[in-house]
Amino acid sequence: MRATALRAAAALCAAALLTSCAADAETAGTYPSRSIDYVVPFAAGGSTDIAARAGAEALSDELGVPVNVVNQPGADQIIGVSTVRTSEADGYTLLADGAGSSSIQGLLPYVPYDWTDRTFVAKFAEGPHVYVVGGDSPYQDFDAVVEAARSDPENFTVGWIGGSSTSDFATLQFLAGNDIDAAKVKRVPFRSSGEVMRAVAAGDIDFGAGGASSAFSLAGTGKLRPIALTGTQPIDKLEGVPSTAELGHPELDMQYWVGVSAPPGLPRDLTGKLADAVATIAEDDAVVDQLSAVGLAPAVLTGEELRTDINREKDRFATLSEQIGVAG
Amino acid sequence: MGLSELLSGFAEVFQPQVLLLAFLGCLAGTMVGVLPGLGPVSAIAILFPLTAYLGPSAAIVVLAAIYYGAMYGGSTSAILLKIPGEVSSLPAALEGYPMTQRGRAGQALAIAAGASFFAGIVGTLGVWLIGPHLAGFALEFGPPEMLGLVLFALTAIAGLSSGSVVRGIGMAVAGMLLASVGLDLTSSQQRMTFGSLELMQGLDIVPVMIGLFGVAEVLRTLERGTPSAQAAKVGGFLPTRDEFRRSAGAAGRGTVTGFLLGLIPGMLPSTTTFLSYASERRRAERKGGSRFGTGAVEGIGGPEAANNATAMSGFVPLFSLGIPTGPTMALIMAALMVYGVVPGPTMFTSDADITAAVIASFFVANVILLVLNLPLAGLWAKIANVPYGVLGPIIIVCCGVGAYTARNSVFDIVVCLVAGVAGWAMSKRGLPVAPFVMGFILGPMLELSLRQTVAISPASLVESPIFLCFAAAALVSVGLAYRLHRRGVEKVDANA
């Protein structure tokens, strides 16, 4: 009698355990059933934040649950990434990923985790960098700046945002691609590419690089002269600015991107469903408009292809940073 | 932009739904700001996502309304409970709370609201009329000029330290040291992080300040046992003729300096507020009979006006050059960009309709806030009469929320509590907290501008007239402080 009771109790416990497991491991059929946190590792207001908010709004329509943007800035994006990495791999905590929170972290000695240990779901947007000089600068085009910097690198000042952003790598690529001695060039510290643009426009420094949108306002005043956009695509709001490909420098192609990543071990079917949703919204008209407002365009890459791409990006960054003798 | 454009801007704002949005923004901002420990930073963080569903001009009208509402509200909790929600309402706490204790809370609230209103209106006029001409100022102010300004601002610390100047300087240095925790900007070296991930992101001023004032004030009240706030009487809110005269002068000075300094990128209202407070205090001490520290109306009117004027003039570099002067301006810029409006010269030409609507809405928001706050002053003042057994826990919870929302970080709640205990210990030892906060804010600015200047060319210091002016002003300021100090010592000797 007692044995039966015990067995029944054990069976009940097992059943309870099973159901709770079933509740935990959601399938692509039922996911998502509640709101999703989309962690942006930057303060609100930057171009990654704007792109992420546009993506989040469209994703929430696509998936039928609220997608909430949570800004967690600080410590070279380590804080935001770390929050997502240590969350449950259930698809309800996602990261607004980008080079600054992935491949560049592969170069930073103080990142306390393995940067590749995450689920790369999809990238949905990408955009070029812009190279700028002052409106009153003696060098008014690409070749003139290169010439001046090459002949006297010690007196060539460039903006620098701590070495943990693609803008800095765009600068390094500019120096390396044009045989300018990057170790001799003076790197002047700033907190954001917006501040770099102000300093270039004011004539405080000679040269700067930033995401295309960082130059939109000042370029309109004539105080800032954009000399090239990295890659091949023109940007509407920077009309008439040549691409590096047009200038005969296709190797200067540094892009920055925004995507969706998840904690390591996100179940395959959930990853697939999310990647499909992200790919769909990237072509959404409203999203395309909002992306182009900050100089970005849809660019979808998912799964292993994305992982390979980011790994390749990391290797390029590593080669570039060797020039200045420090990682990052 | 002429008068006709501005009038069509008013026509835009006087549509019922825009007026309603502006009113709701003011109300929501004020409500969040009134909560002890919550200020504009929290209000914007909490309410920003809601503005994403509005059109460009409506979104900016609401954002601005929330921002100003939270500033008005933040001063309210500073005056009534000595708990500022942000650094710029600190002077209101230092001078307004003693007034509350003397039963003149209503007058303190009215002076704060009046000064904010005055600066808001004058600032809006400034943005409209002289804004486009002053835009270039943001480009004149490079690293050497910033360095000069920061050096000058640091001398104001002497004016903030009641009693020993050495203690004030010591606290400012402590503030600078704590502000340097985290990753170094250029080399990404870790500073005082002890290998901790949380410390790597550095300490944010918001949780630190909420702890030093909010949590510490609760601890002090618990220790006293008989909460003084309970004894406070609300009183009327009409200031005496003398109070009006003294605060109006201070508000005028605060408005002018706040507006001009606010044109500089990186110049936050917190800094200009402190400068105004320090200069009003020194002015009063030079004249003799200073009531600073015990409820001086100049210490409320001047800084409150400087605060709002700076917040207004931040729109000048934003609208004309697309240069945001601080985090709130960066958010407003983002809201513009999302709608395809690129801040820049076109704001006053092809996008003049949006700009006119925004400027008109500033006028309207300021009027709404005054109308909202003067009658409500009495209601808010009753907060001080809530039994402390109820109020204390609410304050602690609000402080936690305020600390958390700055960066969505649980660690910041811990920082806030630790800062609370530290603030309590500081007041036991008679260490002034205001210079600490000042050091915390100015330290990183000093470091950055110094390193930029050195990297560009140290020689640019002597070539910059603005830097030389500031350097001279800093020396004069130190000299005056020394003389004032000597005179004080002699007076004490004579009395003894």
Automatic annotation (TrEMBL), chain A:
Pfam families registered for this protein in UniProt: TctC
This protein's record includes keyword Zinc: no
PROSITE patterns for the chain: PROKAR_LIPOPROTEIN (PS51257)
Domain of life: Bacteria
Translocase listed as a keyword: no
Signal peptide: 1-25
Swiss-Prot/TrEMBL keywords: Signal
The family this protein is said to belong to: Belongs to the UPF0065 (bug) family.
Stored PANTHER family: BLR1237 PROTEIN (PTHR42928:SF5), TRICARBOXYLATE-BINDING PROTEIN (PTHR42928)
Protein name from the UniProt record: Tripartite tricarboxylate transporter substrate binding protein
UniProtKB/TrEMBL annotation, chain B:
Every DUF112 domain range: 19-437
InterPro entries on file: DUF112_TM (IPR002823)
Pfam families attached to this UniProt entry: TctA
Superkingdom of source: Bacteria
Keyword field contains Protein biosynthesis: no
Keyword vocabulary terms for this entry: Membrane, Transmembrane, Transmembrane helix
Parts of the chain that traverse the membrane: 18-38, 44-68, 108-130, 150-178, 199-219, 256-278, 318-342, 354-374, 386-404, 410-426, 433-450, 462-482
Record has Membrane as a keyword: yes
Protein name: Tripartite tricarboxylate transporter permease
Organism: Prauserella cavernicola
